[in-house]
Amino acid sequence: MTMAIKSTSGLLGQLPSVRGELRAYVPLARYTWFRVGGPAEVLFTPADSDDLSGFLKDCPKNIPITVIGLGSNLLIRDGGIPGVVIRLVRGLSVVRCVDDEIVAGAGALSVRVSRLAALAGIGGLEFLSGVPGSIGGAVRMNAGAYGKDVSDVLVSAVAIDRAGLSWERTAEEFCFSYRKSLGLAKDTIVIAARFRGYAETSGKITERMDEIQQFRFGSQPVRDRTGGSTFTNPPQDEAWRLIDSAGCRGLRLGGALVSEKHCNFLVNTGSATAADIECLGEEVRRRVFHKTGTRLEWEIQRLGCHDRWAESCNA
Ligand SMILES: Cc1cc2nc3c(=O)[nH]c(=O)nc-3n(C[C@H](O)[C@H](O)[C@H](O)COP(=O)(O)OP(=O)(O)OC[C@H]3O[C@@H](n4cnc5c(N)ncnc54)[C@H](O)[C@@H]3O)c2cc1C
Question: What is the pTM (predicted TM-score) of this model?
Fold first, then answer.
């Protein structure tokens, strides 16, 4: 996407008024698990879905819009994100049980959905307790773990487009595949989702959630500054195995490190820039290709510009 935006205050002046919050030049690093990256030219936190809809309807269409969730699968580049970044995590976060389904706002944390399902005796959603992030991010990424993903449990989701129009789509309409929702256009925002499971005792569900937590803490660097799985698994293989066989476990570049604990995770050791992390990821891809002939594909979503307020950038 090519864009040319230079003036921060100028952009705020072009935006419609909202009930939520519009702030210029907001550092985004604190909103990502990696804790790196530059600012949003403008950060919008909508008060609710009507506020978001009204904003999208009246926002000039030449202004780029980017949505972020909890930032657990994101690498925001050091130059930041031009245009408006929309963050739903503070608003749109209600989770409730309706009959035998769980309905959640896109800003709700996935773990809250699995906890409410456990209380309500709805089995099958416990894998969401092992996926950090928001429901909007989980739908976009078709997040999954331990043999299940969102496509197995989603009944439908409400999405809102660039014109501010919202509509409910069935799970089939999202055309889910491994870590992808091909039916969801890039500039369309998920605002709520409905999940179904099966009847199960709360005790059994909680037991499985405890097992998931133990497994995660034992196998993933969950206490580090990371972005989850860096690369998707190639067909019939596992990214971590290829990375290991290419000798990349423990590889460092600046403040970025290939995790010793799980080598498909990159870690910010404290002083990394987004460029360190992205370059280290590219170096891993290069070595894996050289060693195995397989081209790893990024699972982490890389957003924004390498240089601040660049004339153009590829988001
Ligand atoms: C320690 C750790 C472990 C992880 N383990 C797993 C795992 O086991 N399985 C797994 O699948 N993932 C895992 N992840 C990755 C991540 O947790 C998931 O992809 C999560 O669902 C992302 O949600 P988020 O809210 O953080 O999205 P973000 O990281 O903020 O965004 C991810 C993408 O979703 C888009 N997006 C966010 N919200 C919306 C919305 N409302 N509408 C439309 N698009 C949106 C963003 O634009 C971006 O492209 C892990 C991450 C970490 C840090």
Answer: 0.94
